[in-house]
Description:
The complex is a heterodimer. Chain A has helices spanning 3-7, 16-37, 39-47, 68-71, 103-121, 145-154, 172-181, 193-211, 229-233, 238-249, 355-360, and strands at 64-65, 84-87, 98-101, 126-131, 142-144, 157-162, 187-192, 220-225, 253-258, 268-270, 276-277, 282-287, 300-307, 317-329, 339-346.
Amino acid sequence: xxxxxxxxxxxxxxxxxxxxxxxxxxxxxxxxxxxxxxxxxxxxxxxxxxxxxxxxxxxxxxxxxxxxxxxxxxxxxxxxxxxxxxxxxxxxxxxxxxxxxxxxxxxxxxxxxxxxxxxxxxxxxxxxxxxxxxxxxxxxxxxxxxxxxxxxxxxxxxxxxxxxxxxxxxxxxxxxxxxxxxxxxxxxxxxxxxxxxxxxxxxxxxxxxxxxxxxxxxxxxxxxxxxxxxxxxxxxxxxxxxxxxxxxxxxxxxxxxxxxxxxxxxxxxxxxxxxxxxxxxxxxxxxxxxxxxxxxxxxxxxxxxxxxxxxxxxxxxxxxxxxxxxxxxxxxxxxxxxxxxxxxxxxxxxxxxxxxxxxxxxx
Amino acid sequence: xxxxxxxxxxxxxxxxxxxxxxxxxxxxxxxxxxxxxxxxxxxxxxxxxxxxxxxxxxxxxxxxxxxxxxxxxxxxxxxx
Lengths: 363, 80
């Protein structure tokens, strides 16, 4: 099945048996493609004697550790075909992953993202408030994960406004004008978890305490991602994050997402029940940290992610450094089909990453 | 200003390109028309014609010619 055929399905409409069939076929095809075009990947498959023609299930496809993209330049297209190189977010001095995108992969990432997000926001574009600073997307040749995230979501915004200035200060006047201009409209807010907490929520609290001024964002929908590590260390839970935002500005439609630069596009959005959902474009499996066997629902393991998108680099099956718990499949009360899960945190001794967490490391 | 003038101006101003290079121009052909440039271009076109493109059309908009085809669709009604 080609990617364009997968695109024709609604992202959460395909049940277990059919999804397994579609994804396995597509991932086997990607495995063949990368073996043919990426010598390093071919060497890895050869060393374990892997035969992609015998795949009967997604879980049999070998997974590369995400770290490998820091150590090796893994590409399945020629350098001339690369239109964009994306880098993972890392703290200073930390090696970054480099992900090479050609036209097709870059466009398929955007298409998948649109399908996934618009199933939550509706297909109408909305005025958009970006809780970050404009300089994040200034360096266009090398895209940071943070810039790529903002840019990818920009597609959903009609009138776009950054809420922070380049010193990461909340620009109260600008936000005020923006909200006045779009009063009564549904507004999309996007940002990274820690930045929202530190530079938006805390500033709004301060504003309320010092001047009595408040913003009404009860018409808003917030999508945020990039990691919880810093907020966990400050003992801010997901529920508290949401409740605090509702309290300070009336914002109650809040969705976290899980995603990574190595598999841009096929993100895992959080539903109304607080569960992260795999769409038709991707899937998750939890693996035992000792023997890498697949773990059943309810058991904590290392998160493996597979994605139908990557054609220009061999990143269709990856072992992350995050721990998660699979909660179920096809039976979330929200009605979406596919697996749903929760992310528990980072593996011990794993590097800090995630757009929110690397930024927060400075605090 | 005619529609084609408005359309060309949007390209010239947001991608800093001369008009003679527009025919046959594709997304990612020049440095300025990358994903950031694309959103600037879309905003310029939306302003020029006072329309709002669907997300699907923003993605499909991958060449100078394709853009004209999209704008000519009934919902936008821009005739060239």
